[in-house]
Amino acid sequence: SETFATTSSGARDDISLSDTIYDGVFTKLVTSNIFSSFDEGNFAAIVILAIAFGFALGKVLMERVNGDPDRSSVILFFKEVNDVFLKLIQWIIMVTPFAVFSLVVRAIGGQDNLVEAFENVGYLVVASMLSMVLHILFVHVILLGLICKINPFSYLRQLVPAQTMAFACASSAATIPMTLHCVESTGEVPESIMRFVIPLGATINMDGSATYFPCSCIWLAILNGVEVDASAYFLLIIIASVGSAGTAPIPASALALIITAYNTVFNGSGTPDGFEYIVAIDWFTDRLITALNITGDAVVARMVTALAPIDVIEHMEQTTVHDSVLLPDKSIGSDKSSDDEAITP
Which pTM does this prediction carry? Predict the structure, then answer.
């Protein structure tokens, strides 16, 4: 390539597929030294440890304190640590605009050919947009047609206002009211499912983030002349799928995970060269990611409706409303009895 830097002389033919999978995937998922993984920023091994630790902690809580998290000193400790790190992150966010400006200025000032540099960035933007369009066509459209037995395009057309707001504010959490309104206007999703699936999906269902992470990491690898093999693709799929669920539903929340995923897969450290360009275009790509995220939430809500026993759910909702109407007001009864006691000689 005349645009991207390359340092590899070609693929090695003395490494088998099993060696590639073992060294490139297994050893990074199951580490022999977790402290070394923390030091090297091996995100995949840390996530695997966290999942195993969470399952074990849940078993212990069920055996000792009947599953009450408020009685666990370990959970209280992690809550305090989480609050401390959130406060530190808030301080960092305060100086982020100045840091981003300095990164962009340094990157542009160090380029001899700005046209070539912007061409590289254009490849990333086009690849990201293409991957998101393919995700909608081959995942959302096909699943809506196969599972829900409906015209997927007529359903997706009614989500345009929510997608527009998501593109404008770049926040899945802030778009929840509009997403609820659009899904409700379709008349195809019960309120009980809609109000459970969409707020939950805004925090853990990150289709756009999982699609964008591999694109950006592979772009950084090629830009830095790093060879991308099959194990790297496979590991990126795992990290993007798991890591995107932990991404906060706020603007620019994916930048830290991109660095972590890149360093984990390609054995890097620190901030890779070219990351400043990803930061520079994040204002645009993050809006595309958010629009795809809330689209996935609405699609999942419709699929849950098709798979769940809706007749039973609607009957329960009607029963709940009917009981709430017929249920006597206990406060009125208690006031009346107290008045009777007051006038009783």
Answer: 0.67
